[in-house]
Amino acid sequence: QIRYSIPEELTRGAFVGNIAKDLGTDVAKLTAANLQVLSDSDSQYFSVNVNTGVIMVSERIDREQLCGQNPRCFLHLKLAIENPVEFYRIEVEILDINDNPPEFPSDEVSLRIYELASLGARFPIQPAQDPDVGTNTLQTYHLSANDNFNLNVKAHTDGGKFPELVLERALDREFRAFHYLVLTAEDGGSPPQSSKIRITIQVLDANDNHPVFDRPSYGARLVENSPLGTLVVKLNATDVDEGPNGDIRYSLSSHNSAALRQIFAINEQTGEIRVQGNLDFEEATVYEIEVEAKDMGSPTMEEHCSVVVEITDVNDNAPEVILTSFSSTLSEDALPGTVVAVIHVRDRDSGEQGKVLCHVSPDLPFQLRKDYEHQYSLLTSTRLDREHVAYYNVTVSASDLGHPPLSRHTILPITLIDVNDNAPQFEQASYEVLVAENNPVGSVLVTVSAADPDSEQNSRLSYSILRAGGTDPGLDPTRYLSIHPTNGQVTAKFPFDYEQTTYLQFHVEVSDGGSPALRNRTLVHVFVVDQNDNAPRVHFPRAGEDSATQFRISPSIVPPALITKVVAIDADSGRNAWLSYHLVEATDLGLFSVALRSGEVRIMRALQDTDASAHELLVVVRDAGEPPLSTAVTLVVLVEEKGPEALQGSEARAADGGALPTITLYLIVSLVLISTV
């Protein structure tokens, strides 16, 4: 805490103090630390030059307007710097200057005094008011020279000085009916200032006894907020005169302020003083009431006394919570101990009832740290996660120590700002896709989907295709496939051909829009399903287009001799490659047969002389697909007598054909195994 003292009414820009020098730090460090000055009052009376560290006056300071009659006047500032956050309390004492002279309520006052007034009788004069304090305020009164009156100055507990004329020598109306006096009020400034009031005293005849109170002063004690009509005290004054001269009326003296007259009222007949306004300990702890008692004589005689009323405090003010600094947004990666708000608390009650304790719910990731009396800092206590809780309503509860305690709750809304701390996650670790070959270009094969719990830009996802490890280098997935960058739809660029590609795997990578971006991958398996798009191809016997293959047999061939074997292969797989052989047309359908699965062409009976010498056979090879595809081959069988070499050639050809069934069997078994897998 740093304290300065300056006189009031300084000009704008006047030097108050060098904060850099008094803190023992370099001006450059204060500039880098974002130096700020915060005032407890509504007006900014001071400013700081961050380049020099000098505190200057920025507005006119009138001590009387700020602090009234308080003997000491202070303005409090808070000096805040960042990196790290620190607060220093600055106390500036405003010193009074003698800028106000004492002033009487009027320039002239008239008094009417009976000639039989007792020596020592006192006659109050309305006091002069001086808003200055200390030695600069009203110090003394001076009465002009006269033969009958002396001046007595009555001092109140609050420092007020009330002049009274004291009768020192008996009056004689017949000798002098009027007395003209001058009362001068003077303060203690240097040089002193003063003002004057003219006093005209008229000496009256008759009523020669004034009322007398049974005690010079009265005392009472009340609790603040006492109900209206509460009795404060009952006055008692007597007058030994008889008749109207002894009939007393009570009233509040003109010395009392207008505010006091609104709080207390007196019954002129009984002298009872009762409460008629609000008693607030925080506004005044003691009231001093000036009361006068007047008789009904002519002229009226009066007597004055004081009633001192002490006010006892009760806990009637809830604590006040003032946000000195507060940020409603907070990054979710803020470290524990980050300052979110600086809170100032105060309670207008006194003693234990004015002490305030603050707390927040222990279920929240925030805590309060007491910096010094009446100031707390709201800090983060643990790590924050926006994806778990994105918004907090932090209730700061302030309670005093009264009985019963009063409290006030202030809600601080805090919104967490997202950071990119979550990588996207696919719905599946891998995807398996079955695609029929010859698929249309642009058809959607699969839609991969990922989610990111972050928000806004950090949750905007983008998909791309990558080659998977272990994939054939020649099978670049980007050649066959494309992916929509935002919705994850994988589409085909070209139709698949099962006969060329049966399986393809690749990675899909998703990345968010954060900085830096976070990524994740999933593996996609594409299985190509065969379609019946290939007709069987005849490998044996080979023949050109629109031509037939000739075979020669002996007329004496013995059935069921093998003539030849039709061998065909289908590039498809599974049922689409299961082949069957059918004899569709023949010169004599009963003479020859074709094995359904092996394609062997055999003679079924012995040749006769009536049989033709040449037979044309149309063999159709058909697969088992839906719909089935087929291929036809034409065989011409010639019946000829040949020598042994020719027959041996035929037998050799037949022998060569005899090995074909085994090959066909192996082929069928292989196709069945592949289809099963």
From TrEMBL:
UniProt cross-references to InterPro entries, sorted A to Z: Cadherin-like_dom, Cadherin-like_sf, Cadherin_CS, Cadherin_N, Protocadherin/Cadherin-CA
GO molecular function per UniProt: calcium ion binding
GO cellular component: plasma membrane
Membrane topology, as annotated: Single-pass type I membrane protein
Keyword Glycoprotein: yes
SUPFAM superfamilies given in the database record: Cadherin-like (SSF49313)
Annotated ranges, domain Cadherin: 5-104, 105-213, 214-321, 322-426, 427-538, 545-663
Subcellular localization: Cell membrane
Entry's Gene Ontology BP terms: homophilic cell adhesion via plasma membrane adhesion molecules
Record has Membrane as a keyword: yes
Alphabetical UniProt keywords: Calcium, Cell adhesion, Cell membrane, Glycoprotein, Membrane, Repeat, Signal, Transmembrane, Transmembrane helix
Pfam families from the UniProt entry: Cadherin (PF00028), Cadherin_2 (PF08266)
Record protein name field: Protocadherin gamma-C3
